[in-house]
Design a protein that fits this description.
Distance between the termini: 41 Å
Radius of gyration: 27 Å
Shape: globular
Strand order of the largest sheet: 16-17-18-19-20-21-22-23
Number of domains: 3
CATH architecture of the largest domain: Alpha/alpha barrel
Number of helices: 15
CATH class of the largest domain: Mainly Alpha
Length: 715
């Protein structure tokens, strides 16, 4: 028997399997598929919490804890029709349940949900398992048992002997020449690698790092690079960026569109694939998408690896120059190649030009990159690999050096897109997907219900979170949470579309290494493409879909590449969504609880002013009080938040003078003691202190909260 080391992602799978197999609920509960739909990955204590009920015989729903106690109950509302699933639904809101634990939802009809946790790490665990899946799909990498558990495999596709296809031939690299282009991620369920989709995926992987670098420390995902003193996320993204750099022709700066075999490989492990590999045609889309993401990455790598940042920027400029000389080279599939294209039938590359312009400008500060650009003509909406223009708006909205006028336009585009999504999230399954579909016709495949609809839902969650970040309107954040809920179980199929997460998760993704490895459990962290009724796989697969309604047209079968394939662009968007929403929910809950003024009514002239620091689990504490002889004094500290407690080391300043005689050189800061603050409810804090050798306890009441916030105790 193999002795697997429980590192990396493996413990998360074990944890969820343990919940599924050992939960005390399982003995007596009747889980009825299709009747109680809930996020099986779980909820942050401070987030909104909804379940969707399709059991028309039930009148009451209750939340039951692991001891069998009912912690919340309510009558179910009137049903409403949701056309995307062609069914009547009722929404059960149990957002008031905030205590950490394992729960299920029980209906008075006897039906029960799958179990789910409530804890502060529920969404970050989703982000972590989705992020680590990229290590599991690396090309040319051995996955050891220590790092990959039962999904260990030999290295395959080293790509050190790649053939230059005749479509990619140039004056220096002729047709048939051999080049080296190792590394990178397998794009989807196949073993090929594509620049266009890689650029989109790397952007979304890096986006949460730009907003919260501290959220991605070294060692967080246990990959081969862990322990090198750099962020695991940057290490993982670099593994693919290095491959993308190798796809640039050093002679002219152009980018090969893809690295592929001539045909899709069979269902075999990477090391068993004998097919020759080719780089195929240079394209304008590949050059511009590469220029954009390389310039973007250059900004983020510069603090930790300035040499690598320079390398990325130089490569981006060369790709930009090639595109300038070749502004309309669309990818054309050669007759002897039949793998994916990542190309649109007709394309003026306006989106690609806009994205590349903005990223190069933000990185270099050189206005030349914006010359000839008309922002008013650039479309908004939701980004995708085929519509990258909105990525320019996301970057402008978050960049500290963006011109104010462009940043204002960018923020407007984000709000407009989010408003449409937030409106859709008030209906049916309370999800943004379907917002752009308009009226539904029988059997018609709608705009949102496309191949990779779960990727659409993930991108929507990112846009909603960004709108919340701009406005602090929690309606956007609740809608973003809802989109994640949908992906993780609160959907008409009652399945968590993320492998390894939830009691009832996707088991048979269209992934060659996962299918061929002989392991019953799929490779963890892969997001299934999701339901849609395009039926592109109908001619190849001998099965019927569950339902022709677009939200139900899903089949958990390897053959269903139209609904059950994984792809790096969908997974990267989920990484961004999970981490960003997790961070914003945490920050929002902190702002709603600690930030504000506090005092003990029996201690006149004393009190605390606290403020949570944005994007971090910490808060500044200002304690105005007296010294031992009765003089007014201030104690100041920054504390770390752990659950509902804050511990802070306090200091005291001395030596300064008021007004014109102030000299910063006279000021000293000396340790004075520590405080422990425990929030009991929204309006009461227990203060335990040791200051200048004196130990004491006070109960503080809230004097004011942050305007516009709703108090929520953080567990």
């Amino acid at each position: 028997m193999k002795n697997y080391k429980l590192t990396g992602l493996y413990p998360y799978l074990v944890l969820f399997l343990a919940v599924a197999l050992l939960s005390p609920f399982q003995a007596g509960a009747q889980v009825v598929a299709g009747s109680v739909h809930v996020n099986q990955a779980g909820f942050h204590p401070a987030s909104s919490k909804l379940a969707v009920i399709t059991d028309d015989t039930a009148t009451m729903a209750s939340v039951i804890d692991s001891s069998g106690n009912t912690v919340f109950s309510s009558a179910l509302p009137e049903s409403e029709y949701w056309p995307h699933a062609d069914e009547e639904v009722r929404v059960f809101d149990f957002s008031t349940v905030k205590t950490t634990g394992i729960y299920r939802i029980q209906l008075d009809s006897g039906s029960s949900s799958y179990t789910f946790p409530i804890n502060r790490d529920a969404l970050s665990d989703v982000g972590r398992i989705a992020l680590r899946s990229f290590f599991m799909i690396r090309s040319g990498t051995e996955l050891t048992t220590e790092l990959a558990g039962p999904w260990a495999r030999a290295a395959g596709h080293p790509d050190t002997n790649v053939i230059v296809h005749e479509s990619a031939a140039g004056p220096v690299r002729e047709a048939g020449a051999i080049i080296s282009s190792p590394g990178g991620w397998y794009d989807a369920g196949d073993y090929n690698k594509y620049i266009v989709n890689s650029a989109f995926a790397v952007y979304f992987m890096l986006m949460p790092y730009e907003i919260c670098p501290a959220c991605f420390p070294d060692g967080a995902t246990n990959i081969p690079e862990s322990g090198n003193g750099k962020s695991d996320l940057l290490d993982e993204a670099r593994f693919n960026l290095d491959w993308m750099l190798s796809m640039q022709d050093p002679a002219d700066g152009g980018l090969y569109h893809k690295l592929t075999s001539k045909r899709f490989s069979g269902v075999i492990m990477p090391a068993d694939d004998p097919a020759e590999r080719y780089v195929v045609q240079k394209s304008t889309a590949a050059a511009l998408d590469f220029a954009a993401v390389a310039a973007y990455a250059s900004r983020l790598y510069h603090p930790s690896d300035p040499a690598y940042a320079v390398k990325l920027l130089e490569a981006a400029k060369k790709a930009w120059a090639w595109a300038g000389q070749n502004p309309a080279v669309a990818y054309q599939q050669p007759a002897d190649i039949s793998t994916g294209t990542y190309a649109r039938p007709s394309d003026d590359f306006a989106d690609e030009w806009s994205w590349a312009r903005v990223e190069l400008y933000l990185t270099t500060g050189e206005a030349v990159y914006l010359e000839g650009w008309n922002p008013a003509a650039q479309s908004g909406g939701l980004p995708s690999w085929s519509h990258v223009g909105p990525l320019a708006w996301l970057s402008l909205a978050n960049a500290v050096n963006a011109p104010a006028d462009l940043q204002a336009i960018a923020q407007d585009h984000i709000r407009i897109a989010a408003n449409t999504l937030q409106g859709a999230a008030q209906q049916g399954y309370r999800v943004g997907i379907g917002a752009y579909d308009g009226s539904l016709n029988d059997g018609e495949r709608q705009r949102d219900w496309v191949w990779g609809s779960n990727g659409v839902a993930s991108v929507q969650a990112v846009m909603l979170e960004q709108a919340y970040r701009l406005s602090e309107d929690t309606a956007y954040l609740d809608a973003a949470v809802s989109n994640l809920d949908y992906l993780l179980g609160r959907n008409p199929n009652g399945v968590s579309y993320l492998t390894g997460i939830g009691e009832n998760h996707t088991m048979n993704p269209h992934s060659r290494p996962s299918q061929a490895d002989g392991v019953v459990e799929p490779v963890p962290g892969l997001l299934a493409g999701g339901p849609h009724n395009g039926y592109q796989d109908d001619k190849d697969c001998e099965f019927d879909y569950i339902n022709p309604a677009p939200a139900k047209s899903y089949h958990d079968h390897f053959c269903s590449y139209a609904t059950n394939e994984n792809a790096i662009n969908w997974n990267a968007a989920l990484v961004a969504a999970a981490y960003l929403v997790h961070n914003s929910v945490g920050v929002a809950s902190q702002l709603q609880t600690l930030s504000g003024g506090w005092h003990d009514p029996s201690h006149s002239g004393e009190g605390l002013v606290m403020h949570n620091l944005e994007g971090r689990d910490s808060a500044a504490v200002f304690w105005f009080t007296y010294d031992e002889v009765g003089n007014q004094r201030w104690f100041v500290g920054v504390g770390q938040l752990e659950g509902n407690q804050l511990t802070a080391n306090m200091t005291i300043t001395s030596g300064g003078r008021f007004g014109s005689e102030f000299d910063p050189g006279d000021v000293s800061r000396d340790p004075i003691g520590t405080v422990l603050l425990t929030m009991n409810d929204c309006d009461n804090i227990l203060l335990e202190y040791e200051i200048s050798g004196e130990v004491g306890v006070q109960t503080l009441r809230r004097t004011y909260a942050v305007p516009g916030s709703n108090c929520t105790v953080r567990n």
